[in-house]
# Entry
Amino acid sequence: MARTRILVVEDEQIVADDLRETLEILGYEVSGLAVSGEEAIAKVAATCPNLVLMDIRLEGAMDGIEASHIIQTDFQLPVIYLTANADRATLERVKQSEPFGYLMKPFSEKSLATTIEIAIARHQAELKVRQALKTVQASKNAAEKLAHEKSEYLCLLAHELRNPLTAIKFAAEVLQSHSEQLPDDKKMRYVQRIHTATNSLNKLLEDVLTLEHSNASPLQWSPLEVDVVGFCEELIEVLQVNCDDHHTLTFSSNIEQYPAFLDEKLLWHLLNNLLSNAIKYSPAGGTVFLKLHGEPDRFSLYISDQGIGIPPQTLPRLFEAFYRAGNVGQIPGTGLGLAISKQCAELQGGSISVDSTLGQGTTFTVVLPRHKKEQ
# Structure
């Protein structure tokens, strides 16, 4: 067990030498001697003692009480005062400095050892309490942050739900109140509004559930062997049918087959969201590219469009739930797709990044491991 290191601050050399000898007999290690408050502070910084024995009256402009205040504030070390003076004014200053001990000269070896041990024990107890308070405060801060994030999340979700619900309510009220006066084409228009708003609600709820699922324990990740090339080809074919001739979707790969251990559902959400976004933000007649580059241990997927691009200042927040870039205008969306894609990539041990130029297009790069992730 390491010996307690003590710095002695005493401007009378004979007293200092005697105190050093006494401390060493008692089993302590003297880390140094100082004759002034200024020297005491410097030696505390240089020698890192466990405790300071401080004479109150010292050479120089700074007395022991002033030096003690700096040592306790800056270095959080216990200080024991040694003094031959016990006048009322000095005692009041000593009390205000909250020392760990106070010894009147002359004192016995037993009194010195007892005072040192009590001071060390008190200091260690205070350190434990301080650390416990820090831990409690950190936990409190984390809980408050989580509660704030949950509250903000619910507010954003309520806002996103309100728009399609308002559209459904308005269209339903018009049909209920004026159905007989409306021509068939206008009736169908309001029915279509209800249908579109309902689809938006379903998409929003599906995205929320997917995001919550992807935030769950990684133990729920269920990898199976998937041919990534075939998977991408099928997904591109389905999306091409859905967007008719408004956009062209292309797929290319540096390999004909590429089996990998992946969660097929998470992979579908990951690519479907990225490709759907690429289509949504591309001009009519534009081309969306999906490229696969397979390597022995990992593979990369590049989803590129020739669309509106993303403002540089919004890139750091792009993967936050409900966050949408400022240049999307009236293009519909929940602001959850990219958050879901990021979670789906990370759950499978991968990553996602983005490169974009305003007015020219965006490329998302997804990197995933090929082999089964350790659970």
Q: What stands out?
A: The first strand starts at residue 5 and ends at 9.
